[in-house]
Amino acid sequence: VDANSAVVVEKNHPLEGEVLSGKVVCLPSGRGSCTASQVILELVLNGRGPTALILKETDELIALGFVVAEELFGVINTPVLVLDDHDTWQAVTNADTVAVQLDGSLTIQTGSEKIVFNCVVSSEKDELILSASDRSILAGDEGHSRRVALKIVKRIATMIGARELVDVVRAHIDAVTYIGPASLRFVQKFLSFGGQGFKVPTTTNACSVDLTKWRQLNIPTSLGEPAEKLANGYLELGAQPSFTCAPYLLDMPPLSGEHLGWSESNAVAFANSICGAKTLKNADFLDACIALTGRAPLAGVHLNQNRKPKVNIHLESCYISEKNTEKDILWPVAGYAIGLAANTSIPIISGALEFQKATKADLKHFSAAFATTSKVPLFYLSGHAPTTLEQDVSLPKKILTVDDLNSAWKSLGGYTSMNDLDTEDNVDLVAVGNPHASVQELEMLYALLKNQKRLKSKLIVTIGRDVLRQAEQHGLINNLLQFDGFQLIQDTCWCMLNYPIVPHDASIVTNSAKYAHYAPGLVRPRRIQISSLSGCVDAAVSGRLPRRLPPW
Q1: What is the C-alpha separation between 415 and 285, in angstroms, rounded?
Q2: Do residues 116 and 128 lie in contact, with contact meaning Cβ atoms separated by under 8 Å?
């Protein structure tokens, strides 16, 4: 949703093009990005929010924006209802008119028939069991900032059915992305309270600009200045200047069993599924509140009983030879397809991927793609997960075939027939590094590029500061920058980049399923096409869309 206009911009969404402001919005649930809460707060504070929000199941990523509007800014004008009864949901979504009161009462009218429901506003549930430390924070003993932050954590915890809170060992903040003035007002509000900053070690996600050279990149000051203020605000609160959407690439990746307070959907999926850590997919703003208090809702995948798989997704044979230079593209496309199939159920994934060797980069792209299309923050990938699970024959089973991979491939701009290949379209931009590129990927890029002299299309890689430092020590950066047309951008990532980095009406090639999914709504490219890393290099060298069919 565009935070200024309230228009749904996600390509192929059922509500694409609809304006949400002033309407009762019914959504079964959210999915994908943690930034939904930022968008909601932006809409509420600029007067463009919906009249009411009706969900089929609790979604704290969406509801948090309304909670922050109330707790920090005193704005209480949007009831959020959860209708988990199927018949009531059907009646509401099929009604001619719907009226919602702040107390949660709901009136629907279909034809001449009018029905009144007395619903429970989503935040009104049982009280938490608070520790002595929690009660001390809420009494203001650790300052007003932590008191307000814990009030927000507490409200979300009750909303999602938590009975108590849990200590986290570290946090990762996605709210460092500048969506609009509301995101800056949030951090400035906490800074104005004074007192103590973050209670646990806290890393920062990719922000909205390259903080080292946004002016050189001709980023408008209307974005660059507030984005820089926002990033610096979180540093003032005590965050580390990591500015990466791949915090698992940092020197101290999560350990199995650790409780974390992370946001950023791909990072959460990787931490839970590949590292074996425990974190909810925390909404933007909740991540900062967890960092301030060191406490998170003890719910969802923090609890072992909620980490059990609910569906077996079996990917039928599509083995790709280790010698095939296209083999890396299987992972983001499979992650995208499996995320769609999993939907709201934690999957155990069997079949073809068990027998494919996977690099950390492969698992990164799989996690990001899975988190884009699935609501759950955890998967079990047989042969690659930290926990070995026996196949439970009682689980419902979904079988995915090459046809499902092809469908995902086409959704991401790929071709499945030589007759469909567009050989005329020039490539304006090759986008790599969503999530942020690793040293390993930079080494692979250099190996693919080293016999080339110049690039006909721009090849831009987004990267975190820590990986940049490691790559400089290896001499990789100097080697890569010798290629005319190659560029590195740090601190930010593709889902935050726009003009002039991304040209208007651009033809884009990327190896990221996440970016191929979101770019049509974010930058409105002429076309976007997913390809392997070698396909990306070929596109940059030739200046043409890669003539590639999927390797399966």
Answers
A1: 39
A2: no
Write out the two tokens for 444: 């692979």
Amino acid at 28: P
Q: Which residues pair with 52 in a beta bridge?
A: 24
**Picking from 96-100, 128-132, 297-301, 500-504, which range would have the lowest pLDDT averaged per residue?**
96-100
121, 135 Cβ separation under 8 angstroms: no
Complete edge-to-edge strand list for the sheet that includes strand 80-82: 24-27, 52-55, 80-82
Measured CA to CA, the distance from residue 123 to residue 166 in angstroms comes to: 19
Q: Residue 446 and residue 474: Cα distance in Å, rounded?
A: 12
**367 has catalytic annotation:** no
Q: Which residues have C-beta within 8 Å of that of residue 504, sequence separation ≥ 6?
A: none
Q: What is the mean pLDDT of the chain?
A: 90
Pair 28, 55: CB distance under 8 Å: yes
pLDDT tens string 79-116: 787 877 788 888 888 888 888 877 767 888 888 888 87
Distance from C-alpha of 287 to C-alpha of 447, rounded to nearest angstrom: 38
This model's pTM is above 0.85:
yes
CA geometry: angle at 474 spanning 468 and 478, to 5°? 70
Contact call for residues 267 and 248 (beta carbons, < 8 A): yes
Alpha-carbon gap, residue 493 to 462, rounded angstroms = 6
DSSP H helical ranges for 281-427: 286-293, 330-342, 360-373, 402-411
Q: Please state, in angstroms and rounded to a whole number, the distance separating the CA atoms of residues 163 and 152.
A: 15
Calpha distance 261→372 (Å, rounded): 19
Residues 227-257 as b/e (b if ≥16 CB within 10 A, e otherwise) read bbebbbbbeebebbbbbbbbbbbbeeebeee
Catalytic residue among 5, 21, 29, 33: 33
Interhelix angle 60-73/181-193, rounded to 10 degrees, is 50
| Cα separation, 272 vs 269, whole angstroms | 5
Chain-centroid distance of CA 13 in Å reads: 17
